[in-house]
Structures are given as C-alpha cells and as structure tokens.
C-alpha cells in the first residue's frame, strides 16, 4: 500500500464553490485534484493499492481508496466534483466516523494530526524535503506514507509534527516540484524497484 | 534544451470550444493541458530551457517556448485558454510561418511530420515505448526530443514515422503512464543526472 497525505492550505471546506473556478474561487483546489490523478491514474487503469488523504483547512480529510474507487477521471474538473460531493456530506461525518459520498471517496471530520497518525500506523512516513537524502540512497519502504503540501510550504506546526513522525526525509531530485509531480516521481521510483539500477 | 512533441488525436482545431468542458466537448484537451504544465512548471518557477509542441488533429501545431513564456498557470483551464487563444490566430499562420498569440505561445499550420522533422533537427529523438530499453541503460542525450501521444495510441502512420526518426526507444518503467506523467518522470531522470546513481 502506498499512501499520500496532501495538505490543502487554500482549499474549500464547504461544497459552495464553482467547478468553473478551481484555481481561484475554490482556493487552489486544482492542485489537490492533480494530486489525486497522479496518485491513481495509469494509462487506462487505476492503481488499486493506493490511498490518498486530502486534508482541507485542517478541518476535514477526504480519503480516496484505490481498491473501491469508481468514477475517477483524470481531468481536474471531474475530480473536483468528487471532492465537492464529499464536502456536501460533511454533516454526516460525526466524530472520526467517515461518511462515504461515492464509491471509494469518504470524508472525516479531522485535520492533519489525526490523519497522519492514522495513515502512519501501518506504514513508513516519508517527508519529501529539499534537504532530505537523495531517494536513491534510502531503502525503499514497503508501505510508504508520503506527506506533501499544496502550493504553500508546510506551516510551522505541520512541519514540527511531520519532523516528529517522519521515519525518512527524502529528496526526489535537485528541482522543487509541484506536489502532483512529486507523487508521479515517487511512484516511478517505487515502480522501478527491480530495474537493474537497484 | 528539452523538447516534447505531444500528438493530440482528439483535440480541437478551432477556438470554438468551452473552457467548462475540456474533457468532453473539447475532445481530450485536458490531457494536453496537463502535458504543458508537466513540461514547464516547477514550484514557483518555470523551466526556461524547454519547448513543447502540441500537434492538433495533424493540422496545426501550437508551440510553447519556455524562455519567452508568460501567463502560464498550472491549472488546466488557464492553459486551455492559452491554446484557445492560439487557435483563434490560426488564420494568421500562413505556410510554415508561426503566428504568436501570447508571449511564448505560437501556432503554425503543420502536422506531425514537419513538426517532428523541425524539432529533431537539433536534438535526439526519443520514443517512449513499453518495449523500449530501460531509461537507466540509455546514455542521456543532451538535447532530447520526447515524442508522446495523448490518451490514444499512436496511429499507424505516426508510429511508422517515429520509428524511422527515433534515435532511441526508451521505457520509463514497468507501468504505462499518462503522457503528462511520463513528461514528469522524463524530467526527473534528466534532472538527477549527477545524482550518484549515474
């Protein structure tokens, strides 16, 4: 299982946003939509052994579960519609109980800390960081939990939590990538285990 | 210089499409938009030494020139607006003369064959193919020209042209990736030259 936790600092926490303005009126929901696509989409296939958690405003977490996921298309707008559908169910998410809004998509009322604790329980938490160790030098964990931020840096509190929890701090390359591109590169590193460079 | 030629089989060739329906009424323009973002976008920066050619319906080619590019945002919709702006100028593209529609974005009236010939003149044409050599085994060319297709396979004629022109046939990993994800992975391989695995 590969997991990705993506913090949306500038994301809606209600369903009242327009699909026509994802990079404006909806904060920067476009970034989070592309992260979901990068995490799941293969050419004419879905990565089933993946789970993505989008943390919205440290208030709600929307979880996409690959093995149950239906109706995911690669474009931003249709993914945003799934997110909006989950936010419309936020009233049903009571305590830490998730509410499922469509197959494989659910919402819980919780922020970064409990989401990270839960995701990290069964995996190795990997912080992607420009000062981290080159990914090629790090033994590849079997159940990695990658933690990323949207277009903003991690807030101080988030960075502190992550530093406490992270088992590895890894750098994917010399360039600073968008979160969705980092997910694509991380997948490729994991996919090519067994290629002879390893 | 890194170049990417992306063939859009299911893309508009006029400016009469809605930005609200990129993955439907506009064919699959969403794929091409994500390819442009993957090719240029770094976190809070643009890759200047990149050129992208989108071949639309084998009739027009829209070229994005990194060093001149302005107003490129990472979301699909704003990139689609740049493409629509270029298509609106298609009447000005006479012979092989390009018409510039916004800084760094121009359109020419030509299809895949002349675009590939032109792009390949100064570089090494790399075909991304599932039966290609693992990318780690191939000497990294200094001026690669990667040729990709949108969500459809290459048509027979395109595949034939490409097989004739390609200097290398390369595989990025065991999974079949979307074109935009392949661009991201290709960039990472080039970026990490000098990392100690090479």
Question: What would your notes on this structure say?
Answer:
The structure is a homodimer of 198-residue chains. Chain A has 198 residues and is an alpha/beta fold. The first copy, chain A, contains 5 helices and 10 strands, in the order E-H-E-E-E-E-H-E-E-H-E-E-H-E-H. Chain A has an 8-stranded mixed β-sheet with strand order 6-7-5-4-1-9-8-10, with helices on both faces. A two-stranded antiparallel sheet of chain A has the order 2-3. In chain A, helix 1 (29-40) crosses helix 2 and helix 3 runs parallel beside helix 4 (156-165). Chain A is globular and about 45 Å long. Chains A and B meet through helix 1, strand 2, helix 2 and helix 5 of A and helix 1, strand 2, helix 2 and helix 5 of B.
Quick structural overview:
The structure is a homodimer of 198-residue chains. Chain A is α/β, with parallel strands linked by helices and 198 residues long.
Radius of gyration of chain A: 16 Å
Tell me the overall shape of chain A: globular
Task: State the total count of DSSP E strands of chain A.
Answer: 10
- Tell me, rounded to a whole number, the average pLDDT of chain A: 93
Low-confidence stretches of chain A: none
User: What portion of residues of chain A belong to β-strands?
Assistant: 25-35%
Largest sheet of chain A: 8 strands, mixed
Measured between the Cα atoms of the first and last residue of chain A, the distance is 20 Å
């Amino acid at each position: 299982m590969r997991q990705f936790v993506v913090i949306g600092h500038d994301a809606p926490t209600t369903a009242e946003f327009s699909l026509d303005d994802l990079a404006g009126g909806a904060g920067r929901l476009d970034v989070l939509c592309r992260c979901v696509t990068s995490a799941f989409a293969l050419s004419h296939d879905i990565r089933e052994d993946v789970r993505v958690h989008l943390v919205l405003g440290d208030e709600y977490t929307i979880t996409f579960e690959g093995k149950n996921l239906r109706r995911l298309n690669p474009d931003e707008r249709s993914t945003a519609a799934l997110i909006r559908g989950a936010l419309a169910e936020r009233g049903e998410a009571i305590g830490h109980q998730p509410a499922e809004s469509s197959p494989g998509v659910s919402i819980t009322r919780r922020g970064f800390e409990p989401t990270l604790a839960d995701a990290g329980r069964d995996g190795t938490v990997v912080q992607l960081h420009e000062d981290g160790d080159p990914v090629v030098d790090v033994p590849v964990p079997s159940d990695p939990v990658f933690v990323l931020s949207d277009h903003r840096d991690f807030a101080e509190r988030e960075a502190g939590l992550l530093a406490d929890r992270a088992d590895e701090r890894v750098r994917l390359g010399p360039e600073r990538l968008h979160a969705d591109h980092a997910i694509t590169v991380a997948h490729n590193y994991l996919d090519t285990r067994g290629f002879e460079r390893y």
